[in-house]
Amino acid sequence: MIHSIILSMLFAIVGCSGGLNPDLTLTPGQDPAQKIGNYQFDIISGHESVSYTNGQLQGTGVARLLDALPNSKMAANYNITFRLSPGGSLAIVTHAQRTLTNGIELIITWPVNSPHLQVEALTGSNRKDLSQDFVAIDPRQEIRLSMDVHNDHFLQPELIVWSNAGPQPLTQFSLRGNGRGVNWGFRLDRSILTDAYRQNPRETH
Fold first, then answer.
1. Phi, psi (degrees; rounded to nearest 5) at 8
2. Which of the residues 49, 87, 105, 141 has the least number of beta carbons within 10 Å of its own beta carbon?
3. What is the spatial distance between Cα 109 and Cα 201, in angstroms, rounded to a whole number?
4. How many Cβ atoms from other residues are within 10 Å of residue 65's Cβ?
5. Could you say which DSSP state residue 27 is in?
6. Which of 153 and 6 is assigned the larger pLDDT?
7. What digits encode the pLDDT tens for the residues 54-82?
8. Phi first, then psi: what are they for 13, rounded to 5°?
9. Whole-model pTM?
10. How far apart are CA 205 and CA 194, in angstroms?
């Protein structure tokens, strides 16, 4: 009797889950052949305002890469290549939940009529203005950034950002509030994402 009950419970669990990891599952209708770098991606919002052409995602919307972290309390390095339109922005969101909420964000904006970028980091309601650290980057050109996110630091994750994979970081800081998930992706606003990949952190400590 007990054996039958246990088997019934196991079948119910498998039946409900379908054996799928929702963090690695495409939205119905999403083309699995479309990739950013080597990753499939899921459009969370902006289906009508985001377009995909030749490996590039452009427009305005939110996209989650199907490359879930093994766990949320870990460090990783993220490399991105993108272009901005005047008034546009791109945010990379890491260690987030499936809808890219409750994560760690680096938001890069090109204000209209400005020769410089506006950059800020965000975790929850905590923000840090980093614009002065990015004055050497020309917003008219393609932008390549490499970013360590050490979410394994208790309550205060550390971020380190490099430009063009250079040896010296543009900025290094801690911000209160850990990311709460295993997903990463992008919020695009009049921007073009041309490449993205994740690897082991450049700094280990």
1. -65, -40
2. 141
3. 25
4. 21
5. P
6. 153
7. 999 999 999 999 999 999 999 999 999 99
8. -65, -45
9. 0.86
10. 30
